[in-house]
From TrEMBL:
InterPro entries named in the record: MFS_trans_sf, TM_effector
Subcellular location: Cell membrane
Protein name: Major facilitator superfamily (MFS) profile domain-containing protein
UniProt source species: Mesorhizobium ciceri biovar biserrulae (strain HAMBI 2942 / LMG 23838 / WSM1271)
A cellular-component GO term for this protein: plasma membrane
Residues passing through the membrane, by range: 34-53, 59-80, 87-109, 115-135, 172-198, 234-253, 265-285, 297-314, 320-339, 351-373, 385-406
Length: 548
């Protein structure tokens, strides 16, 4: 149930986040690093195409860097929510720098092999898996909520501005200076984000409670995501889109080599066209959001990517391919920006790193699987079949908008509300439990239907925050009395649950309070369960001291 106070998020000026020096510094450094990464990606893809005769190995270059995001992002999200996001970002960029430096040394010494290239791509992917959830989650810490859509758009636009320059630069460097120079440039560019993160600071609202165990943090993040309909739909849509749309980038080296009969410069130019389309779409994003719904916009983006794939399958013209890739780039940016912002705005701050990481994991898993699927189709059948099949799949993804709609960008208060633990007569330890909570309401007959509607919403928000075995009972002897009951495994879990409830969640309690018929507030009882099993005692004949 959406709060009555929810409003559509007002459009923020696209460049407004740049007024924040922390965001500006890290954003700029990230673009420098991305430039080096794109130059390296061009070099890796082309190097793989020249040292390996397998079309599948070429397509797996994309999979190697995206697979770690699928495997590790959920753990990385739990780390981002439990540790300093700044230091998590720093660690991620250290792994990326290590992979780039090792690749540069390997090529320089002449022992680069297809499997080593894939392994180092996997290591860099591990760095991205650590960095991306922490960086995107930090946007909500650094900026005001109204600036989040503009910030996410700028992050995508920035990358695609670099994509417009990086591949062309990579093609030129590769053609005139060789792969070693490309890898050296990438290794140097990794110093920029490391320096920016080291020098900047930003305030983060910390929890007064102890850090969660990793297994429990992952469990709670998955539970919240599964129970959030809007986030679940967005992730499903992203996974399907990644599965189908990655065909454009995964098969592009084969398209240039086999269909255009060209080299790395043309490959770089076509990637620049893809990035330019994304840049134009990013600059137009606010206008597009005003003229159509977010769900319809994402569906149109899938159709644009389908048109790109179909056009590539049917053309041997570089200009036509460049225009088609610009259309595909526009669809790519609109989809990923729309889904990323939807997940961020639907997630409270305590779990945003985990919801984003699950989104990244499943969408990256879709892209990794798609790289393998379309590479296999190209190798066993033909490149044209692979592109045409991907176009058909993207049209199905567009139609999936009816089943998995991307919600509108709405502003709700997702900050955790203040909570003061109740006074207790017993001295409980953090691991004491299970804790049973009972809240008794007195509801007039005419308010029952409204009460049950708010209770359905309350069950949802309480359960996804950690409540177990939630039930609602009606007193058979006094039918106006209703009792809400739920459990938490420990006292610490009870405290976490209440710290996780946002101000928007607490509004449901305010509505229930207005329906309560009584001078006092609904009566709340906290209990701790105790077993009635007989305790085992030690035998006095074996362990007691004999009487003197």
């Amino acid at each position: 149930m959406q709060s009555e106070n929810n409003t559509h998020l007002p459009a923020s000026a696209t460049l407004a986040p740049f007024r924040n020096p922390v965001f500006r510094s890290i954003w700029t450094a990230t673009q420098i690093s991305s430039l080096g990464w794109l130059v390296q990606t061009v070099a890796i893809s082309w190097l793989m195409a020249t040292i390996s005769a397998s079309d599948l190995m070429v397509a797996l270059v994309q999979a190697a860097s995206t697979l770690p995001v699928f495997l590790l992002s959920i753990v990385a999200g739990a780390i981002a929510d439990n540790f300093s996001r700044r230091w998590v970002m720093f660690a991620g960029h250290c792994l990326i720098a290590l992979a780039s430096t090792t690749l540069m040394i390997s090529v320089g010494l002449g022992f680069a092999s297809p499997w080593l290239i894939l392994a180092l791509g996997f290591l860099a992917g591990c760095g991205f898996a650590l960095n991306d959830p922490a960086w995107h989650a930090s946007v909500g810490d650094i900026l005001h909520k109204r600036d989040i859509p503009a910030a996410v758009t700028l992050m995508s636009v920035g990358y695609n501005i670099v994509r417009s320059v990086g591949p062309a630069l990579g093609g030129v460097v590769l053609a005139f200076l060789g792969p070693l120079a490309a890898f050296a440039l990438a290794a140097l560019s990794d110093l920029a984000p490391l320096t920016a993160i080291w020098r900047t600071r930003w305030n983060v609202r910390t929890s007064p409670l102890p850090r969660e165990r990793m297994t429990m943090a992952i469990h709670d993040g998955v539970r919240f995501t599964v129970m959030s309909l809007e986030i679940r739909a967005a992730i499903a849509r992203a996974t399907l889109f990644g599965l189908a749309s990655i065909s454009i980038l995964a098969l592009l080296p084969l398209f240039v080599r086999d269909q255009l009969k060209s080299g790395p410069i043309i490959y770089g130019i076509l990637l620049a066209g893809f990035g330019m389309g994304a840049f134009i779409a990013g600059m137009s994003n606010s206008f597009l959001r005003r003229i159509t719904s977010q769900n319809r916009l994402v569906s149109f983006a899938s159709v644009a990517c389908a048109a790109c794939c179909l056009s590539l399958a049917l053309t041997s013209s570089v200009p036509v391919a460049a225009v088609s890739l610009a259309l595909g780039g526009a669809g790519w940016l609109i989809t990923w920006t729309g889904i990323d912002v939807s997940v961020q705005l639907a997630s409270p701050r305590w779990v945003v790193g985990r919801t984003l990481s699950i989104y990244y994991a499943l969408s990256a898993g879709g892209m990794a699987a798609g790289s393998w699927i379309w590479g296999t189709v190209a190798q066993n059948y033909s490149l044209g079949w692979a592109l045409e099949g991907a176009a058909g799949a993207l049209l199905l993804v567009a139609a999936a908008g009816m089943l998995f709609p991307v919600g509108p960008w709405e502003e709700t208060d997702q900050e955790s509300s203040d909570f003061r633990p109740p006074e207790l007569a017993l001295d409980l330890k953090p691991r004491s439990g299970p804790i049973v909570v009972k809240v008794e309401y007195r509801i007039p007959e005419e308010n029952i239907e409204t009460f049950l509607g708010y209770m359905r919403a309350r069950r949802h928000v309480q359960s996804r925050a950690g409540a177990r075995n939630w039930t609602l009972q009606r007193n058979l002897q006094t039918p106006s009395i209703w009792t809400e009951t739920f459990r938490t495994p420990t006292w610490m879990d009870f405290l976490r649950l209440n710290h996780r409830l946002t101000a928007a969640d607490k509004e449901i309690g305010d509505h229930l309070l207005s329906l309560h018929d009584g001078e006092d507030s609904p009566h709340t009882v906290l209990s701790i369960e105790r077993t009635t099993e007989a305790a085992r005692t030690r035998s006095p004949t074996l362990f007691s001291r004999p009487p003197r």
